[in-house]
Write a structure and sequence with these properties.
By secondary structure, this protein is mainly α. The chain has helices at residues 37-40, 48-70, 104-120, 137-158, 160-165, 169-185, 198-206, and strands at 91-93, 99-101. It has one domain (35-206): MOB kinase activator (Butyryl-CoA Dehydrogenase, subunit A, domain 3, Up-down Bundle). The chain has a two-stranded antiparallel sheet with strand order 1-2.
Length: 210
């Protein structure tokens, strides 16, 4: 899958222990003041699976754009292992059910291609009247959210300086807060999976954004 590249500046890789996104003024950067819960609540007369599908598509689309903005700097050399911080390394399970370690860019390419294929599959994400969602649809949605969370966490961990170069921290913070708020509303992410970003999520909760 091809990703758009917007950043043309170089720069040294961020110290992984500094957590720049946890420092002011970046941590407070947002496009929305107040809680995002009103945006994630299931509207009356809307089918739950429809609501999950529409929002999942949006989070995938915008998450893909954000990774596209830093993809030029997510290389095998700079990101030899898909990670969101010390102690948080991710492996991919291939079609043979074999667990393998992949560099960041290849892992994320696999994730985005896999999600795109699911979204394009009418039997999984139906767009025509009369086609029902599969019984395990919500289980598949949870796997998608787990993988998208890893992409967001990797961007924050490894490429946040590039986001700052674009002055896009407010956009990323808002998208991530919306994503987490939605996931928490419908129990789509395990607490263990959110651990790499737990300090930031706690701050989002304390500030009343989620």
């Amino acid at each position: 899958m091809n990703f758009i590249n917007k950043i043309k500046s170089g720069g040294k890789k961020k110290d992984s222990s500094s957590k720049l996104y946890m420092k002011e003024p970046y941590i407070s950067g947002t496009l929305v003041n107040g809680s995002l819960k009103i945006l994630v609540t299931l509207p009356k007369f809307v089918d739950l699976n429809e609501w999950l599908a529409v929002n999942t598509f949006d989070f995938f689309f915008y998450g893909n754009l954000f990774f596209g903005a830093v993809a030029e700097f997510c290389t095998v050399k700079d990101c030899p292992i898909m990670s969101s911080g010390p102690g948080f390394e991710y492996t991919w399970t291939d079609s043979q059910k074999k667990t393998i370690k992949l560099p960041g860019p290849q892992y994320i390419d696999y994730v985005m291609t896999w999600i795109q294929n699911l979204i394009d599959d009418e039997s999984i994400f139906p767009t025509k009247a009369g086609i029902e969602f599969q019984k395990d649809f919500q289980i598949q949605i949870k796997v998608i959210y787990k993988q998208l969370f890893r992409v967001f966490a990797h961007i924050y961990y490894a490429h946040y300086e590039k986001i700052l170069n674009l002055s896009a921290e407010g956009h990323l913070n808002t998208l991530f807060a919306h994503f987490v708020c939605f996931a928490k509303e419908f129990d789509l992410l395990d607490r263990k999976e959110m651990a790499p970003m737990n300090d930031f999520i706690v701050e989002l909760e304390a500030s009343g954004r989620i």
